[in-house]
Design a protein that fits this description.
The longest helix has 13 residues, at 3-15. Helix content is 37%, strand content 20%. A hairpin with a 2-residue loop joins β6 and β7 (117-123). α5 (84-90) packs antiparallel against α6 (143-155). It is elongated, with a radius of gyration of 20 Å. It has a four-stranded mixed sheet. It has 192 residues and is of the alpha+beta class.
Length: 192
């Protein structure tokens, strides 16, 4: 491949509004310009030239662009939503900063270590995968839903919750109790 083509491909990446790419999205971006048989060779060359950074198999970030860890969390395992301690800390409900970036997913639970950061995805029922907002491209649970996700996991023996660690003034009580009705929780579990 000519260096001109490599430069053109690099420019097309930086001209795009995206910072995270899958192999498929790269194929879609360059589909009319590059032969499918050359795609992996081009990606390898862009990795060697530190234009693309491999996060994991078939997932890349664009060098030189700052990407929020929560956006990376959504990208690494889809569908997923930043929730639990991470969302509660970000929204000011939990003062302690969690070690892991925690998300919920209707898929199986998994933990990924990428670039020294731990991304933990916890399975919840498909019927409980709701109650999130989109903030600057990031799917994040509303604080009421994140707290209920955590309490729900506690009832399953998958999490610990010490309510005195939380600043519940930031919780909308009417939304919290409305959401709680959709969870298989007992009344004593949901009391604030």
């Amino acid at each position: 491949m000519e260096s001109y083509n490599l430069a053109a491909m690099t420019k097309s990446l930086y001209d795009s509004p995206f910072s995270l790419f899958t192999t498929k999205s790269l194929r879609d971006l360059w589909g009319s310009v590059i032969a499918p048989s050359s795609l992996f060779s081009l990606i390898s060359r862009l990795e060697e030239h530190k234009v693309l950074h491999r996060l994991e198999r078939n997932k890349y970030s664009l060098a030189g662009r700052v990407v929020h860890d929560f956006l990376v969390a959504n990208f690494l395992y889809e569908p997923s939503c930043v929730s639990l301690q991470t969302a509660l800390n970000f929204q000011g409900v939990l003062p302690q900063f969690p070690y892991e970036i925690t998300s919920v997913t209707p898929k199986k639970s998994i933990t990924k270590s990428i670039d020294g950061k731990v991304f933990r995805y916890v399975h919840i029922k498909n019927t409980l995968f709701w109650g999130y907002d989109l903030h600057e491209g990031i799917l994040m649970a509303q604080p009421e839903k994140a707290l209920l996700d955590l309490i729900y996991l506690k009832t399953k023996g998958l999490a610990t919750v010490h309510m005195d660690d939380y600043t519940i003034e930031g919780i909308n009580k009417s939304r919290y109790y409305a959401y709680a009705k959709q969870f298989p929780l007992s009344r004593k579990d949901i009391l604030l």
